[in-house]
Amino acid sequence: MHILVVSPLLPTPTSGQNTRNFHLLKTLASRHHVSLLALENDIEKISPDHLSLLSALTDNMQVIALPTNSTKRRQQLLGLLRGVPHVLQTFLLPEVQQALDALFAKHHFDAVLYEGMHIADYRLPENVIAILDEHNLEFELRLRTYQQERALLRKWYNWLEGHLLKSAEIERCRRADVVLMTSEREQTIMQQLLPASKIVVVPNGVDNANFRPADRSKEVENSIVFTGAMGYYPNVDAVRFFAHHCWPLIRARIPSATWQISLKPSPCRKQWFRAASVARDWLLRLDSICWLRINQKLSPRR
């Protein structure tokens, strides 16, 4: 098959979402002819190694610059007032539709894989299979944030956006020929909403070869590390849940246990403040960036 992957960001193995996208593309490329059309915030800062890696996996690759948005909060508010969440418009650009039209005029594709519902609203030729990879139930994510959020304005925003997103997300999934979900729980929810749709599970995984310790002599005994963007609310919620409900039980059984919150350098101060608040409350050690040979990986779920 000839498959065109359309992604809101360049699928490089550098973050959770992008790592999933990269490995799906890599697996597809081992069995099919794959082309890539992706957006990216800052094209000039793309690693040449990542470009070379993706070029080797794809027949064709095109990257379109994602416009910077200095008025994001204003656009978010206006979107809600219009009844169209800003997140649904961010990745829908005339340049992408033009690129799609040009690619289909020049090449034959059997299927298009949309990486996320945010970008799954472009016009495709008839008889092309549309596959939608749902990384989350986006409406559910907002409604969960609403339930946990304390600030009244953020609480209202997430409640409203969650309800507006629900109808749009269901409609974009309905239009897809196949919908990929990351868990059976999410598959069940979406299947109940769309009984006639084909919805299958493609779970997230861990690249064991990449995370296998090269030198176990450097392993730190009874150590736990959490790595994740603290600008992503589910990660903040997960860390707080672990701190409140799990960490005290671990320390009671293993007093010498240590837990570190590891962050990548980021210009976003909110990430530091959120991580620091957990570290302060639970007397943890907070490192700016720390890759350790550890014997436990933390992936809290609830």
Notes on the protein architecture:
With 302 residues, the chain is α/β, with parallel strands linked by helices. The protein has two domains: 2-201, Rossmann fold, CATH 3.40.50.2000; 213-297, no CATH class. Helix content is 44%, strand content 20%. It is built from ten helices and eleven strands. The strands form two sheets. Strands 3-2-1-4-5-6-7 form a seven-stranded parallel β-sheet, sandwiched between helices. Strands 10-9-8-11 form a four-stranded parallel β-sheet, covered by helices on one side. Strand 9, helix 10 and strand 10 form a beta-alpha-beta unit. Helix 9 (233-253) packs parallel to helix 10. The chain is globular and about 65 Å long. Residues 265-269 and 279-300 have low confidence and may be disordered.
Write the layout of secondary structure elements.
Blueprint (H helix, E strand, L loop, with lengths): L1 E6 L8 H14 L3 E8 L7 H10 L2 E6 L6 H11 L11 H13 L4 E5 L13 E5 L4 H11 L3 H24 L2 E4 L2 H10 L5 E3 L6 H4 L7 E9 L5 H21 L4 E5 L6 H14 L2 E3 L5 E5 L5
Parallel strand pairs: 1-2, 1-4, 2-3, 4-5, 5-6, 6-7, 8-9, 8-11, 9-10
The best one-word shape is globular
* CATH fold topology of the largest domain: Rossmann fold
CATH 4th-level superfamily of the largest domain: Glycogen Phosphorylase B
Order of helices and strands: EHEHEHHEEHHEHEHEHEHEE
In terms of structural class, how would the helical and strand content be classed?
alpha/beta
User: What is the straight-line distance between the termini?
Assistant: 38 Å
In the CATH hierarchy, what is the architecture of the largest domain at level 2? 3-Layer(aba) Sandwich
Percentage of β-strand residues: 15-25%
Low-confidence stretches: 265-269, 279-300
Q: Give the number of domains.
A: 2
Number of DSSP strand runs: 11
Helix count equals 10
* Main β sheet profile: 7 strands, parallel
Strand order of the largest sheet: 3-2-1-4-5-6-7
Determine the fraction of residues in helical runs and give it as a percent range.
40-55%
CATH class of the largest domain: Alpha Beta
Average pLDDT: 82
Radius of gyration: 21 Å
